[in-house]
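Propose amino acids for all 135 sites.
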């Protein structure tokens, strides 16, 4: 399953990239996430790992930072027992003279068993009216 979410955000490119790449911010923009827990490595750097713990349920993801090329791109892999998700965030300034940035998040998932329902629910939450989702 693949999904793409694009957002036009009134913030400079570098600031948006920093906010996205900082895993400590994850509970602020992921509604169902209770907390972030560092596991290993320097947080946010390639090879580092952290745990994403949900508010409800038992699907805990172990995240591995794959690449951090700020302010242009950040990549992370999320692994749980029944699903693996690859997330790439890219950040493109709409104008060199203004603060607007396009943030694009591409998710590619490999699902097993009932994990498809959880990811489908996550994708539905990500496609709220203020977001534009492209298949």
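Proposal:
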């Amino acid at each position: 399953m693949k999904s793409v979410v694009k957002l036009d955000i009134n913030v400079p490119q570098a600031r948006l990239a920093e906010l996205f790449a900082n895993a400590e911010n994850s509970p602020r923009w992921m509604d169902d996430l209770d907390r972030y827990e560092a596991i290993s490595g320097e947080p946010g750097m390639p090879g580092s790992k952290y745990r994403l713990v949900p508010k409800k349920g038992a699907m805990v993801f172990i995240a591995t930072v794959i690449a951090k090329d700020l302010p242009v791109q950040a990549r992370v892999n999320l692994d749980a027992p029944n699903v693996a998700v690859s997330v790439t965030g890219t950040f493109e300034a709409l104008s060199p003279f203004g603060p607007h940035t396009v943030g694009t998040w591409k998710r590619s998932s490999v699902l097993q068993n009932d994990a498809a329902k959880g990811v489908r629910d996550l994708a539905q939450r990500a496609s709220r009216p203020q977001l534009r989702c492209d298949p």
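The chain is about 20% helix and 50% strand. The beta strands are 2-10, 33-40, 49-54, 61-69, 73-80, 83-93, 100-111, 132-134.
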